[in-house]
Amino acid sequence: MDFIKIYFEEYRSVFLLRLNNVNIVGDLAKQFLLETAKSILYTIKNTRLEKTIEILLSDNPSKLLDLIDIDALASALCISTEQVDLGLKAIAPVVSQIFILKSNEIVAATASLAWSTVDDDKDSAVNF
Fold this sequence. Notes:
mainly alpha
């Protein structure tokens, strides 16, 4: 799902500034963005398509961040869940703006991902 990588790179400086404001700085901030992007992708892959699209098209699409496993993200980053929560809240307005501006592209990519996941599951069942 390249769109997440593309948007996180496009808005990287804004994300980093917002993370700096909550004392997530330097390499940790960069790692935070990488792990958050992975978490968003995982969340999209593992959430019902209808629910994901409903969230993405809502007035507050950053609600998708509420579905992220904060404990897993904190563990991956070796920081507290409180720091993860602060970081997610700091970048949520930007994530929401991206989702609103790019909603058609994101919904199409999400639907495509859902179908490819179904196909992958079928393939893995056959090869298993």
